Amino acid sequence: MQTSDILLPELPLGIVGFYTSEAIPRSMPIIAVAFSSAVYLYRNMKFFYKYLLPSVDLSVHEMDVWKQLINSENQTPEMITILQENLKAIPPKILSLQSQNFLALTLDQQLEYLEQAAELPMWKPPEITCISTLKMNSIDQYSVSCLVVGTEDGYIIILDPQTFTTLSQAKLCPMKKTPYRMITTGLYNVDYRITVASREKSVCLLKRESTEGRILFNTEEHIISIEVITADESIIVICTDNTMSCYTKKGKKQWCVNLEHRPISMTLVPVLHLGVTLVGVALTSGHVHFYEGKARLDTLFVRDVASVMRFGRLGQEEHVLIVVTGSGNLMLKILKRTADFNSSAAGVEPAPSAAAGHKPWLIPKKSKLFLEQSARERENAVPMHEAFQLELNRLRLLATRTLLDAHAKSENFMGVGAMEPIGLTAEVEGLGPVFRVTLFVENKSKERAVAGLAVLFHAHTAHYRVTNPYIKVPLISPGGKLKFPTKIEEVFEENINPDVFFRPVTGQAGDRALVKVLLLKEDRKRPVLAATVQMPPTDPMMLPFEKIQSGYQNNAVDWEIERKN
């Protein structure tokens, strides 16, 4: 159903929609329509602003020719023919529109034109070739976007969304290249990449804060369309030689697929609930092929040539394919929520998970309750975000407290500071009361050796007895690892409390079961590393029976005395 009809001044070159404000209630998006050298901006389907590209000065050679043409002494058929040849010697890419129109006239028309021309042309209006948008601060759907314009002279201009003034202007590449199609990724205030396909069979890249781009790669034939997959920033290109190729973000070719017919247009089809991003390619036969990588997963027949395709959200439908055919028809194709793009249709072997018999996700139908819940979540987006941030801050607080507790217990195993990284680990072996503790000191530096280290055991003398509490560490070569075994004996009192043997269960070990290992270095007051070793309890079968029996008897006497009292 048609809602409004706007008469355009001339044939449009491109159209985009974007938001210029994040104020609530949210306003309607701005529609920008590009013409020859101007961009018309429409708000609420009404024209409200016209942006003209900055003019470009004529070349010196062209100015000299026009100075001679304006002179009345040179307005003869012989001189005009000579000066006309001088104009034809100038490359058409840098020739102004006035000169091109002058060359298209006959000799009599040229003489009449020069008699009426009173002023000398000083500049030429730049021509727009493509238009796009770039997110400003956020990737949100309704966030503010900048307007990006590509000109015939090979410049990329980024406009401010509020004042429509030039934010930045950069040349496409050192050589003269004319942009044909632009794909923007990233954020303007953070980091962005503008991938541009030119008419000269090349793809160029323009990054943030760069005044000049560079050529990523060249193609053998002319480029029809280009897309960038945001997951890995790979570049998909379709060319006039009936091929679809994939390149990395650095310009290295990954694969190439031969198409059945000549491609016309291309679009990305991100299906988020399935976790896949398809590439839709429209062919002259009226078919639209959907690819995941090199594999063709599905085919759609539209009975006409799809000159333009777009996939995205339309109203309350999240997966809608909009097709504009060559005959001027507008088609809408809604993707089923139960659609399953498997690789069996393309003759590709299934993945191991699919071969194991894993069932696909059971996605319910889009009921009225689901639509109401989705609308409720969109309306309460701010409170939901605040609640999420509150829980996230609580999680961060818990993680910080845990980190402080670990730091207080000195349970760190990696040195921090100007010294080379040193690793310290410990292994405990034995059933008790004599344990074998082996320390491993590793130099993780690959260039420098470490010397002047020593290991010190710190334990309660009433609980443990260390055979060799101080060990000097010799020089450790880069990447070397040394081990130092020692014996630690658990000391018991005359009256043994049986709860000592069950401390892992009762949780009453406390500081009794802790032995600290300090790694020292000469000329340093603080330890380089500190590790805490949790000693296991001694097996009661390893102690003399008389000693354990006496401990049980003493405990029984104490219990009887308490009961009598």
Automatic annotation (TrEMBL):
A single MF term (Gene Ontology): patched binding
Ranges where the Bardet-Biedl syndrome 1 N-terminal domain occurs: 3-207
Source superkingdom: Eukaryota
InterPro entries: BBS1 (IPR028784), BBS1_N (IPR032728), GAE_BBS1 (IPR056419), WD40_repeat_dom_sf (IPR036322)
One matching Pfam family: BBS1
Ranges where the Bardet-Biedl syndrome 1 protein GAE domain occurs: 424-538
One GO location term (cellular component): axoneme
PANTHER family noted in UniProt: BARDET-BIEDL SYNDROME 1 PROTEIN
Name of protein: Bardet-Biedl syndrome 1
Lineage summary: Eukaryota, Metazoa, Ecdysozoa, Arthropoda, Hexapoda
